[in-house]
Amino acid sequence: MLAASALVAGLLFGLGLMVSGMADPSKVLGFLDLAGAWDPSLILVMVGAIAVSGVGFFAARRRTVSLLGAGMQLPGARDIDSRLVGGSVLFGIGWGIAGFCPGPGLVALGMGEAKAVVFVGAMLAGMVLFEFIEKRRRAGITTPRDGARSR
Questions:
Q1: β-strand partners of 65
Q2: Burial status of residue 13 (CB atoms within 10 A of its CB: 0-12, 13-18, 19 or more)
Q3: pTM for the whole thing?
Q4: How far apart are CA 146 and CA 141, in angstroms?
Q5: How many CA atoms lie within 13 A of 63 on its CB side?
Q6: What is the pLDDT along the chain (151 residues), one digit of tens a residue?
């Protein structure tokens, strides 16, 4: 039942991205081009998404299990640190260059968009690189350039 629910939710999300234009990089880049031919239409998509998710998060805070009986796993971290800011900056740069973020990139890949192949490949490479760096960080392995010892 969980897998079927995830499939339906993913299909609805993908359909929403296609209908809203979020899977079209030219539409997204038009939204991000504040100094040029700015297209503000995606603000409505974002406001709608924030409203729906806000209601969902508010309702989820009061529950210990989901509607399907799975344990609730809400984000716990609320700190704004250099890793969050750095990740946000990298995300914004990637979004501005490609016109995709992960969800729309996968939808565009499924639609056969050639640019999405490059984007998804770069996204996967970035995920692998992050995991490699995180494993080294957790193990306490640093580089001599960091001014610390190396194992």
A1: 71
A2: middle
A3: 0.70
A4: 10
A5: 15
A6: 888 998 999 999 889 888 888 888 888 888 888 888 888 888 888 899 899 999 988 988 888 898 888 888 888 888 999 989 998 998 888 888 888 888 889 998 998 989 999 999 999 999 999 999 999 988 887 655 555 554 4
